[in-house]
């Protein structure tokens, strides 16, 4: 390596510069490999974006292929203070709900303790709780416990049935117990202090708020609920009451969940168009390699588009709806889907079963969604066409990287050979220059003698 810095000194030629030019020229052999590798890596990235778009479309298709979508019911409420949800067990109908009172948890406070740091318990102390259904529970307390420690012990007992807190009413501190559950039976009704140093500490009856059940009337039938979440008073429907519901009447309507069905169709159209836009960008022909799509003319993309177009265009025979156009979906000249929401609303309102037959059919692959789901499954499968294309490009990238490394080694060997040859040339020219200088000197001496 020391010869590099001295290269050309003997001959006076710029051999180092010439060697650099030769190295640059040799490294041009790497450029086609780099460009090809960049192209393959861009294809892999494009395949990944395509897979994301197809995954999203597959999710939308799967939703339309689920028969429960077409039988699902929704619950709506006309009125205040009540919300409702319907499950698969619900049946369509209209229900008038009048709320007399909402459910409430019971609570009870103790008499005051003036010193929050004072110890209140002797040995074997406990606090005994009584509830609305007559049940009791005893919480054992440590000796010399403060009010805060008593609170914490109660809260650490999973079977206590109450939450404990401390309230400062301005004159002292009170232990307040609130039932964990609403309802008359679960409400706290009494607490008894055993083996306390302060004999005056007891439940303050004036602070008691009894637990109570929710009372409501549904279509003339009286209903009692221990909770403000009223389940299955209307089969398959859950009613949720808030405080503002008391004394009010609301109408609960259970009907086909047309909004979810419409939303699912809209997601299908949107996901397909998004996927088509992705493909459009990847296959754009611009005449400029810098701006053209990464998958121009790609056989994998053409195959996927062809299969999906075939599925979308074929009839779904046997039902009242056989084509997308009958439910308000049309294909634009650009290959996108366009949704006429008014026509879709009419189709859902007039014949929802026809939509179920068209999209879901009577088996997993019978309807349009089933057909598309089968195709997408083949495309996106672990050994499907998209995964094979990705694997193929990744294999080419690996081989190109190996080729790059081998070519780079050959280039360095060539440059080393040039360096050795230039070194030999430099030495030979240096020797010739030395001989030339010697002969010139000798000739000059001879001429001088002749002149003399």
From TrEMBL:
Required for morphogenesis and for the elongation of the flagellar filament by facilitating polymerization of the flagellin monomers at the tip of growing filament. Forms a capping structure, which prevents flagellin subunits (transported through the central channel of the flagellum) from leaking out without polymerization at the distal end. Residues 11-105 form the Flagellar hook-associated protein 2 N-terminal domain. Pfam families: Flagellin_IN, FliD_C, FliD_N. This is Flagellar hook-associated protein 2. Keywords: Bacterial flagellum, Cell projection, Cilium, Coiled coil, Flagellum, Secreted. It is found in: Secreted; Bacterial flagellum. Belongs to the FliD family.
